[in-house]
Amino acid sequence: MKDSCHVAFFPFTAYGHMIPMAHMAVLFASRGVQTTIITTRETAPRFTELIGKTINYDHLITLHIIEFKAAEACLPLGLENSDKPVPSQPITNVFDVISMLQEPFEQFILQARPNCIVADMFYPWTTKIAAKYNIPRIVFNVNGFFPLCVFEAMRVYDPARDVSSDSEPFIVPHLPHKIMLTKKQLARFEEVKIKGFVEVLIQASEAEVTSYGVVMNSFYELEPEYALHYREVIKRKAWHIGPVSLFRKNIEDKLERGRESGIDEHECLKWLDSKGCDAVVYISFGTMVTVTSSQLYEIAMGLEACDKNFIWVIKKDEEKSFPEGFEARMKAKGKGLIIKGWAPQVLILDHESVGGFVTHCGWNSVLEGVSGGVGMVAWPVMAEQFFNAKLVTDVFGIGVPIGDVEWSATSRCEGVKGETIANAVARLMGAEEGQEMRRRARVLKDKAKTAIEEGGSSYSDLTAFINEIKALSELS
Ligand code: UDP
């Protein structure tokens, strides 16, 4: 069997996709695999940061810059970076623009001839290009097994078809657990606003079937029934190799997130060190959700009412929506630390003072919460977050649902009253129910650690993956 193996990673540029894929590339390099990360000039600096200064395998990782011909298409540079606000461009155009990367991607494949391509789910066209050169294309689907199984059951059986109202619950059929949803919690695929996104989702799910396999940032013991269901019932080839963030063990590594923190990490750790075990709740809605001003106001009211220690990440200037004097009062009492901009999330969730996480249930946040052994208030907003919320509350039993929230086509978090937030946080951080949720979360945390150690399920699946790619390249 050939000893050398070259895997090319092609990440989508949203942080929630880019961070785990960069960590995945480092993980492969740590096993002696030659890895290339394909990216655009605008996005490359983020990867330099994400790969990290402290990693020893940098000789095995190369950044390959592909030219994005934005200027030729009269588009602003950086449009392919989906977190940049481009107000006049609907999301349809972002995906149209991204498809312009096909030609330079094919040129790279032609020259470099990697043994395998791991490309983000949002680049469905990579499957055809890879097939042209007889190279296996693996999909990186940013989600876990559970949301993929729910998505597939919804697609095949359409259980929402027969309900008489948006709030009437229905069972998602043929799943290992009884999962109840309402129409309100589902994406409205007919919405014009998300038309471009829906088209890409359809292409992505078709490409998932025709690709060689799927690599998952998950671990077997987290969702065993769904890891099996995905492979044996839905019949997809998959490897679970996560949580990839756990591979980064020291403080410097945990801080490599492709973006500068809105707080000095020592200040943050000092504040956390001054609190007792499980005494702090961390609140974040990830990178894509917009929290409306009235919702920011209600969250502040809720936090003040429930009187728990908190770290809350907000975007710059969002403090303008706070109730009069809120920030000063929280600071004076030592109750709250407000981070404006980017928070060192993994560092915070791993701290023993943090016992709870109010989260929008993005897959990375769920996995990082589990890896930190914290309970959660599940507050989904869009995408597959409502499915993930069910996993946290109904399957893992480590979360409190925020209540009756609706899927948002505009990525907006809104409509929850301060009193509801205060009650949910009080339940989460409380002695009885909260403690039991944290106990269960800690069991999952230990399992996550074991999964990535030598001999663990994720470690072994990565070995199997690498061996299979090497064997395939022998044959070709
Ligand atoms: N993140 C972070 N600091 C922040 C906000 C987000 O480190 O202030 C990271 C977080 O740890 C996670 C990713 O960004 O790895 C967000 O991914 P997720 O799937 O949770 O949500 P998305 O932003 O994609 O909705």
Automatic annotation (TrEMBL):
The keyword Methyltransferase does not apply. It comes from the Eukaryota. This is Scopoletin glucosyltransferase. Signal peptide: none annotated. GO terms for molecular function: UDP-glucosyltransferase activity. Keywords: Glycosyltransferase, Transferase. It comes from Artemisia annua (Sweet wormwood). Belongs to the UDP-glycosyltransferase family.
